[in-house]
Amino acid sequence: MIKIKLSTILLLVFLFGCASSIETYSTKDFQCYPDAVYLIRHAEKKIIKGEQDPELTKSGFNRATALADSLSHISNGVIYSSEFKRTQQTVNPLASVWGTKVNIQNSHDPDRQIKRALSHCNKIVIISGHSNTIPNLISLFGIEDEVSISDDQYGDLYLIRWENKVPYLNGLQVGE
Q1: Rounded CA gap, 146 and 144, in Å?
Q2: What is the pLDDT of residues 45-103, one digit of tens each?
Q3: pTM greater than the 0.90 cutoff
Q4: Separation CA 102–CA 95 (nearest Å)
Q5: Which CATH fold topology does 25-173 show?
Q6: Tens digits of per-residue pLDDT, 91-102?
Q7: How far apart are CA 18 and CA 20, in angstroms?
Q8: In terms of Cα–Cα distance, which of 81, 100, 75, 73 is closest to 39?
Q9: Beta strand residue intervals within the chain, DSSP E
Q10: 55, 15, 40: which is closest to 147 by C-alpha?
């Protein structure tokens, strides 16, 4: 009879249990698509030493208003934001204009963000995120162009549309 230490069993369970890769979604996995997905990094935030969840600056609130103004013509929209104040404050004016709520999505779960966004057939989806999450989301939507956002870069609004199940990316600018 073979004796196996409990620690060995736990190590094997940990290694093989955690080895599963992040689920990825192909555009071929879905029967329909949103009309468009807009992705925006939160607007300008206050810089306060030690503050992990700062609010927007006056310029940031102005940019959030500009976002709402630029997308006010859309009536069939769904809004997602990360759990942080600055991302929610960026899309709150738009939610007011659209008469909808902001759906909070964990910024550390990009697969779920993609799955939820792609589940909104024939709707407009907007995702408010961060300089380190938006480029990854764009990639996960199937866009091969590399996108990077610097720490001082605000107002870039990325638009993804599908044509024959192939995603295309366009860039827009919101605010000053």
Answers
A1: 6
A2: 999 999 999 999 999 999 999 999 999 999 879 999 999 999 999 999 999 999 999 99
A3: no
A4: 6
A5: Rossmann fold (3.40.50)
A6: 999 999 999 999
A7: 6
A8: 81
A9: 36-41, 77-81, 102-104, 124-129, 156-163, 166-173
A10: 40
